[in-house]
Write the structure tokens for this entry.
Amino acid sequence: ARLVVLVSGSGSNLQALLDATADPGYGARVVAVGADREGIAGLDRAARAGVPTFVDRVPAYPTRDEWDRALTEHVGAYRPDLVISAGFLKLVGPHFLAAFGDRYLNTHNSLLPAFPGIHGPRDALDYGVKVAGATLFFVDAGIDTGPIVAQVAVPVLDGDDEESLTERIKEAERRQLVEQVGRLVREGWTITGRRVTVP
Ligand code: GRF
């Protein structure tokens, strides 16, 4: 299966996928990495692995809609079976969702529907929950609202600060991403309403 991964930052989730896909038995390979900005570690990781990259910056287009069209076209050129947002900090638009809506995955660092948005671990700490975690889901038009594929729980420990909790979540999140993407590409999936089933 062909994976296109979208990143905006450090790309540690991308790295986990690059490492996993080095094994031909995994059943998928990363055919391209896209970003919404230059100069990020995620792009370096792709280059080091010999994977082609592209960058679509929102301000490089006259309108958000044209950016959405361009991103859709650039991703589509790689004919992906799955598109994976791994720390991609942009909400895609209607063109992208029309093309990839049933095969566009995102990983988020909270147990959704709790703590959507960009500060999952901080919001979990501030709320005082004792269990945090990560969620893998298919993206829909909302913010962190799409059909859930899998979740992994991690404990919040007494001495945690934002950094320590974020790191604990990210370790579990990377493992989940690799396991679940492997499972999806090997087994396939169906989405019925909010329910994702893997046969
Ligand atoms: C992940 O924890 C993701 O949930 C959050 O940003 C992080 C991405 O990290 N939205 P990385 O770029 O894969 O290292």
Q: What stands out?
A: The chain has a mean pLDDT of 97. Residues 7, 9-14, 42, 86-87, 107-109, 170, 173 surround 5-O-phosphono-beta-D-ribofuranosylamine (CB under 6 Å). The first strand starts at residue 2 and ends at 7.
